[in-house]
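Usage

Read records sequentially. Each one opens with the input sequence:
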Amino acid sequence: MMRHLASMAMALGLFLAAPAQAQWHRLASGTQEDLKAVSAIDAQIAWASGGHGTVLRTQDGGTSWQRCAAPTGAEDLDFRGVQGFDKDTAVVMAGGSGQASRLFKTADGCRTWKVVLANPDAAGSFEALRRATAYDIYLLGQPVAGRFVVYLSHNAGDTWARETDSGLAFPADAHLVPGGASAMTNVLSFVVFGSGGGDGDGGAQIYSYGPLCKGKACEIGWSGKPAPMASGDVVASVAGRNIMVPATGTVTGIGTMPATALVAVGGDPRQGMGAAAFSADGGATWKPASATPGGYRSAVDFDGDHNRFIAVGPNGTDVSVDDGLIWAPLRPGPEGSAEDRGWTAVSLPFVVGEHGRIGLLTNR
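and closes with the structure output:
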């Protein structure tokens, strides 16, 4: 156990006004490797990672990208995750079965690397890496022995402890997709991740770590809830933002209380069908989006500067300005059909994709 922790017309009108101003501006990455992950510290500093041990870093807002020397023995590994802490410190995650899954850390601007965690499960695979606080970082893996694999580090990735919470049990046909986890921060720090629906009766699930209450008794732990998506759909990514909601229950003298608005995106990657769900209460209840993204979406992030969620995927980019109820193309019409496609991961203001593609979100 872890110790810490609008009407439709109005919304459509907003889509016509705000998102049409945004676009992805292509940047020169200096590599042709497929990029799988990106982690923005701020508008100037970001890390990216991908195939064949590729790690990139920018310190000038994406104008130039430094290709780091691959960690020793990692030249052929698939770096599916990266989380930066500052301009010099980052943890990268290699995914794959068994020992192909490893975590490496640099604290000197990628001049040197050290292995901080090797996968102990021959049948397991690391799948997602997310930083939650200044020092806390979570690792998510494919299910092993009847439950999802979750590790936590309290010291920026130097050491790791495996979670044994019974709430991490999963439906028999559940699975993860690369990048299918997202770290949130609310009153407490917690992680939300989604699983795939498979082809059976398990269905997609959304797991969260937070208060579990029965009557007046509460404890902190993991719990999973069915995601309101079609059978066979996967929850590929989850993102959120802090909001204020009307106080309810026994709370008196307080008009509003903090909560977390969450959105989940995904769909059926085999058919290219998009799906999305949203929650206004930190994941306690979920509803399906009224208008879904225009295809499978692999990643989503919240744009705090313009109060919108942005989701990316193989065939386009979509935006929601109402916390996930309605999704519409970032730039409607043919003008957005090329540069808005082919993205894999997003950490605003940056996005990455196949063949070394990196983009910067701009507004004009």
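Summary fields computed downstream for this record:
- The two ends are 47 Å apart (CA to CA).
- Residues 8-17 form the longest helix (10 residues).
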